[in-house]
Write a structure and sequence with these properties.
This protein has helices at about 1-25, 35, 40-65, 65-70, 75-85, 95-114. By secondary structure, it is mostly helical. Helix 1 (about 1-25) packs antiparallel against helix 3 and helix 1 (about 1-25) crosses helix 5 (about 75-85). It is flat.
Length: about 110
């Protein structure tokens, strides 16, 4: 149950960051001003997703030691790499994939401690 909460907190955080990216892409490289910015649906979605992720994170911290829980947030790097590669067609080189593999190995090692 705790790992599922942690995974959901990571996913919500990543989805919030993707919504942020969509918001700034909608602004076409220029800061739109506060009034237009506040009318951007992607921005409100980002705030909602990041807020929900934070609330789940608080539940995770009730159940896990911070020394175990916090390093597991490195899964965000894995998720964002996958989303960047397959949703935004970003180039991910071999060295980056090796880093992702090391993060996954570290998370698995930490998961065995909890």
């Amino acid at each position: 149950m705790t790992f599922a909460l942690l995974l959901c907190a990571c996913l919500l955080t990543c989805l919030g960051q993707i919504a942020q990216k969509m918001a700034v892409e909608q602004w076409q490289g220029q800061f739109p001003g506060i009034a237009l910015m506040l009318r951007t649906h992607w921005l409100w979605l980002a705030i909602a997703l990041l807020g929900a992720g934070m609330l789940l994170w608080l539940l995770v911290l009730q159940r896990l030691e911070v020394g175990i829980a916090y390093p597991m947030l490195a899964l965000n790097f894995v998720f964002i790499t996958l989303i960047g590669r397959y949703l935004f067609d970003e180039v991910v080189d071999r060295r980056h994939w090796m880093g992702v593999a090391m993060i996954l190995a570290g998370v698995m090692l930490l998961g065995q401690q909890s």
